[in-house]
Amino acid sequence: MANGTVIAASPEEAPPPYKPMVDSIASLFDDPKYSDFEIECGDKIWRVHKNIVGSRSDVLDRAFSGQFKEASGNFIALLDDEGCVVREMLRYIYTSDYHDEHYLWPSDEDDENYCYKPMLFNVLMHTTADKYNIPALADLAAAKFKARAVKEWITEDFANAIEEMYDTAPDSKKAMHACAVSTAVEHAQDLYENRLCGRFREVASKTPAFTSAFAARLVSEQGKAKRERVATPMKNVFRSARSPDAW
After folding, report:
1. Across the beta sheet with 44-48, what order do the strands follow?
2. Residue 46 is inside which H or E element, if any?
3. Using an 8 Å Cβ cutoff, are 90 and 129 in contact?
4. Which residue range or ranges hold the BTB domain (predicted)?
């Protein structure tokens, strides 16, 4: 399992007066009891509750009312989405959190059984949250990505996440872009010299929007550092000049 900081907004954080209600809603995730709608994606079907899911996503709410051609009766097939991402989106809708470390079905928790690595998964979740108009989920995805980038910037997952965030719906991912750029600038020397970071260099070479932002930020940071180096000796000169011992 990856060593990333976990960002959560779990039912445990609910104020005490509301916690029983929040826990009750969370317990209905992946529970067919009282369900009144089915969502299919890939080879999985989830039995969901329209009043819960529809209240968090106006897009899915329209599907429940028959406004999507993919919907029929109490069923909709999400043909263009990833099953593992849809599952975690639904988990968020019920529990206000999702897992970015997960495996394919069935899983023996073998590393090769990952559906997606965590940082790339968070980018995909952001895209899905934007598609279904769940802003708080998009914010959580960006926060989870940022937390993982602190320690996992050296991995291929970081590079793959950058590629995806600039390739798919980039206009909605400005916060993720800013995090990726600042992280890359902080570790620029390693990313361009360490043999483990070849995937990053490959992505940077074919992602001009990222490379341009990265270069601009790097030049800005270097200029700032240079100005600070020049300013420090001057401060010492003025400090010495004001000292009584200088005369």
Report:
1. 44-48, 37-41, 75-77, 71-72
2. strand 44-48
3. no
4. 35-102
Reported pTM: 0.83
Which of 22, 51, 21 shows the shortest CA–CA distance to 34?
Answer: 51
CB 158 within 8 A of CB 164: no
- For residues 58 and 67, the answer to whether their CB atoms sit within 8 Å is no
247: pLDDT strictly greater than 50: no
Let me know if 109 is exposed, middle or buried by CB neighbors in 10 A (0-12, 13-18, 19+): exposed
Rounded Cα distance between 44 and 78, Å, is: 11
Please, are residues 140 and 9 in contact by the beta-carbon 8 Å criterion?
yes
Whose structure tokens read 């263009």?
80
* Contact predicate 39/49, CB 8 Å: no
- Predicted confidence at residue 225, as pLDDT, reads 67
Mean pLDDT estimate for the chain:
86
Q: Is-cis flag, bond preceding 106, omega within 30?
A: yes
Which residue ranges form the domains of the chain, and what is each CATH number? 1-141 (3.30.710.10), 153-247 (no CATH)
Distance CA 185, CA 183 (A): 5
3-state class of 96 per DSSP?
A: coil
> Is the predicted pLDDT of residue 231 greater than 80, yes or no?
no
